[in-house]
């Protein structure tokens, strides 16, 4: 969620019971601004908090002029000092997917592979490295996976210019209440995968400036999002069931929206059994 | 079509005197005419929409000049669209508003009702309340948890506060606590943990006794019918279901507290039924999301005996038993007059507040987990807190059995299960793999003198406890499931049972496989061929007999 609207936004996502203490909120107000100054970001988003066993990671993302470009991610253990994370590569994501269990809370903690079989080992460790992966790397991979899988925005909030770059839509006044309850009004804010698979009829109805991303309708498994009206029907809150802890909020007919992650950073692979 | 301007396409093509319009008398006010023509063109109403461009441009420019947005030229098309949209909106305006806003209005009405005082409340009631305070101070608890970043928004907490107050005014409640919030697919649950005044709960037990007696009556009727039809009966099933373990009495063990739930503060509170051991045992094997509707069925394997209300109650019981903790010394065992031995060998199950409680410092509370203890009994594998031998019959039932049946072979005597005694320190909790069961942290490192000790459970993610001085509390915010690093593997169906017990009349054997049948056929043919050679010399009748095979 936008750093500028953080206090109000935290009130709106607090329905899940997770939030930030006043100390962290105050610290973020100042440190996110400084991040913007130091790294010359145009926008700074507070991505959320991954709870480890011994400590927590607070994550922020910075966006440049093209909002759809790969974002810079930073983490902090105390919301005051931030360190830049390396960009996520496919290799890193594949390696980190083998890991299970909680984060430890210590960025230099090294995981050892125990369950990996010989074929996978050869594939992933071509240069014969040891079976160790640092928690920082796992953090990078997890944040990337979460953003890719469940980072969402309302339809119409971003427009694609003819030059290909993506900006906020200044004419976005918010979704109406009926639209806000439908999953098709929300898009994954990442490279579209299913867009080309739509039928010609569907494509004819799309508006290329606003409909350039995948919507949530066809997410697998169906029902992996819960849509609820909270606070007496004034806020629409979407929660992901695949990554438990991801909460998206939107106040209909206003420009307020955003998503945040408060959780343990583990994918919920039991989802099909639980629905 | 007056004289063409330099930027217009017709410029320079027609020389004066040779243009196609030269035969017309040029108007002295050719420019004025041009303007009038242009304006007339712009005022033409569109055949499809009834608008005309002149008015539309005027509206657009008025709007732009009124609002003065930055970089207008970039968004001019959108402004044009908005102006057109505004034209059409008015006709359906009233309908749309009414349709959309209704749910929010109703919800606001309900919440407003929370804030209104109930009828007949006066000063007298205030005096009564000062004596006994069943209403918990939800805002105070919320403040302490907020120091750790846990908790709902202040609005919601206050609504819950008022909703609890309403609950207390309606039900005869002795103690009440905000237990927490469980999230669901369609709606969430807000849960209150409550203890009644003694003697308020007899209604439920009467209903259950009636049902049991009715069941026995039915059994007798069925026996009579079966006696008549003994001739053509399929063999009776010898399956004896495992004995149903009776649930614990209200007020003890897993049913010590009564739980009320509502979906949102302002909606009526619903009482959850007591939990039975069978439900707890089954709840341990399944993992399902809550939908938010108490009457929703729980479709699972093994089939859950009950609907969502029962599943919710079972999960609440498990979470409470596993994660309700308090600082050591806050509760102590009541001094008992007699011996402590009980039949089941279980420990004491009552405790009371320690009036001489000396709180430990926050640093001590956080450093080691021995400073926290469980004050709820843990639930055994059987599904109860106090173990009950299901084969121990009461006197009445023994008499009945001697009359009717011979005592069937008793299955192996079950080992008595003993759980950890009440008030065991939390450090004895098993961790999962290499993760300790609890994570303890102070709420702030910057101001240690006012920090609050916070414990987060790792076995039940979402369960939290805080302690600060003499105050402590537990709370749960989450989806209601236990943490398991392994993926959930549902139970496999049991192996196929034999249909009939093997006996002199009926014997079950496997069907022969194709190879076996072919081998048998080949062997038989060989035998036939051998027999034929012997009998070839004899009559043809032998051949006919063979064909019968």
From TrEMBL, chain A:
<comment type="similarity">
    <text>Belongs to the flagellar radial spoke RSP9 family.</text>
</comment>
<keyword id="KW-0963">Cytoplasm</keyword>
<dbReference type="InterPro" id="IPR055316">
    <property type="entry name" value="RSP9"/>
</dbReference>
<dbReference type="GO" id="GO:0060091">
    <property type="term" value="C:kinocilium"/>
</dbReference>
<keyword id="KW-0969">Cilium</keyword>
<dbReference type="GO" id="GO:0035082">
    <property type="term" value="P:axoneme assembly"/>
</dbReference>
<dbReference type="GO" id="GO:0005930">
    <property type="term" value="C:axoneme"/>
</dbReference>
<dbReference type="GO" id="GO:0044458">
    <property type="term" value="P:motile cilium assembly"/>
</dbReference>
<keyword id="KW-0206">Cytoskeleton</keyword>
<protein>
    <recommendedName>
        <fullName>Radial spoke head protein 9 homolog</fullName>
    </recommendedName>
</protein>
<keyword id="KW-0970">Cilium biogenesis/degradation</keyword>
<keyword id="KW-0282">Flagellum</keyword>
<keyword id="KW-0966">Cell projection</keyword>
<dbReference type="GO" id="GO:0060294">
    <property type="term" value="P:cilium movement involved in cell motility"/>
</dbReference>
Automatic annotation (TrEMBL), chain B:
<dbReference type="InterPro" id="IPR006802">
    <property type="entry name" value="Radial_spoke"/>
</dbReference>
<feature type="region of interest" description="Disordered">
    <location>
        <begin position="197"/>
        <end position="250"/>
    </location>
</feature>
<feature type="compositionally biased region" description="Acidic residues">
    <location>
        <begin position="199"/>
        <end position="212"/>
    </location>
</feature>
<feature type="region of interest" description="Disordered">
    <location>
        <begin position="488"/>
        <end position="549"/>
    </location>
</feature>
<dbReference type="GO" id="GO:0035082">
    <property type="term" value="P:axoneme assembly"/>
</dbReference>
<feature type="region of interest" description="Disordered">
    <location>
        <begin position="1"/>
        <end position="20"/>
    </location>
</feature>
<keyword id="KW-0963">Cytoplasm</keyword>
<dbReference type="GO" id="GO:0060294">
    <property type="term" value="P:cilium movement involved in cell motility"/>
</dbReference>
<feature type="compositionally biased region" description="Acidic residues">
    <location>
        <begin position="395"/>
        <end position="415"/>
    </location>
</feature>
<feature type="region of interest" description="Disordered">
    <location>
        <begin position="393"/>
        <end position="428"/>
    </location>
</feature>
<dbReference type="Pfam" id="PF04712">
    <property type="entry name" value="Radial_spoke"/>
</dbReference>
<feature type="compositionally biased region" description="Acidic residues">
    <location>
        <begin position="531"/>
        <end position="549"/>
    </location>
</feature>
<protein>
    <submittedName>
        <fullName>RSH4A protein</fullName>
    </submittedName>
</protein>
<feature type="compositionally biased region" description="Acidic residues">
    <location>
        <begin position="335"/>
        <end position="344"/>
    </location>
</feature>
<feature type="compositionally biased region" description="Acidic residues">
    <location>
        <begin position="220"/>
        <end position="232"/>
    </location>
</feature>
<keyword id="KW-0969">Cilium</keyword>
<keyword id="KW-0966">Cell projection</keyword>
<feature type="compositionally biased region" description="Basic and acidic residues">
    <location>
        <begin position="507"/>
        <end position="527"/>
    </location>
</feature>
<dbReference type="GO" id="GO:0001534">
    <property type="term" value="C:radial spoke"/>
</dbReference>
<feature type="region of interest" description="Disordered">
    <location>
        <begin position="335"/>
        <end position="355"/>
    </location>
</feature>
<keyword id="KW-0206">Cytoskeleton</keyword>
